[in-house]
Amino acid sequence: MTTLDNYVAPTSLEQAVEQLQELGEVTILAGGTDLMPQSHAGRVKFKRTLMNIRRIPELRGISLEDGAIRIGALTTISELMEHPLIRSRLPLLAEAGDHFASAQIRNAATVGGNICNASPAGDTLVPLMALGAQVELCSKPDDTLFCRSMPLPEFFVSPGRTRLAEAELLGAVRVPLPPEGFTARFHKFGTRPALDISAISIAIGGVLSNGVFSDVRVAFGAVAPTPLRGAATEQALEGRRLDEAAIAAAAQAAHDEVHPISDVRASAWYRKEMIRNMTKRILEDVAANH
């Protein structure tokens, strides 16, 4: 077991990325709701330095900036659900938060932690993908604070692995304001949907105008090594009337483009069938209510 030799608690984003550059191998602590259970189970080992980032003000807050909503990495799930900007402009995220663990966990778990944990079943990842979110990755490679953006689907490499560099810190996630008339649905299926890890999750959004569905975004969770955008399902829907034939074609496309595994939560066959059925049900609900 690695011995913890150092503990740091930076009070600014710039100080944090400087320390990441200087110290090398660092374990980041935010809410701890993923890190602590995984470390106790032996799945994660602390590196020699533990960095507590909870005192960094730049990682907090939700604000509207340049046509996008910036959500600080330290935003808790409870804060996400309750914030008026999220509830009015990104209701899909508020809805997804209601399916995230228990109230006690939501009060501590952070959006940044859920993203960096990189679980294929991460509860905020699927709705964020369907909303076109980008991550903001901060570092200080040459004495200047630098933040680069990356579309969220590109951030994930495999279960538990991301493209976050060793000396980078996730500062925020930015979500572009959805177009006028945008409507979206999120569904998570599990034995106890709010408390269990999902067997599948799905988010579908788009603009339905005069019966035609456009600007379609689809994302799936727990059906591949990483959460993913449903490109084939989007293509089956884009610019089409949301009628029975289009819904059936989209449900089949969703079934065919996911590649789940069998595990203790569900078989691969069952997951694919659930994706087909839930895609159909969500689209029928959208069509019936607009």
What is the level 1 CATH name of the largest domain?
Answer: Alpha Beta
- Structural class assignment: alpha+beta
Helix content range = 25-40%
Question: What is the second-level CATH architecture of the largest domain?
Answer: 2-Layer Sandwich
Under CATH, the topology of the largest domain can be stated as: Uridine Diphospho-n-acetylenolpyruvylglucosamine Reductase, domain 3
Radius of gyration: 19 Å
Strand content: 25-35%
- Any low-confidence stretches, pLDDT <50, length ≥5? none
Strand order of the largest sheet: 4-5-10-6-7
Number of domains: 3
Plain-language structure description:
- It is a single chain.
- This protein folds into 3 domains: about 45 residues; about 120 residues, 2-Layer Sandwich (Uridine Diphospho-n-acetylenolpyruvylglucosamine Reductase, domain 3); about 100 residues, Enolase-like, domain 1 (2-Layer Sandwich).
- The N and C termini lie far apart (about 55 Å).
- It is of the alpha+beta class.
- The model has no long low-confidence stretch (mean pLDDT about 90).
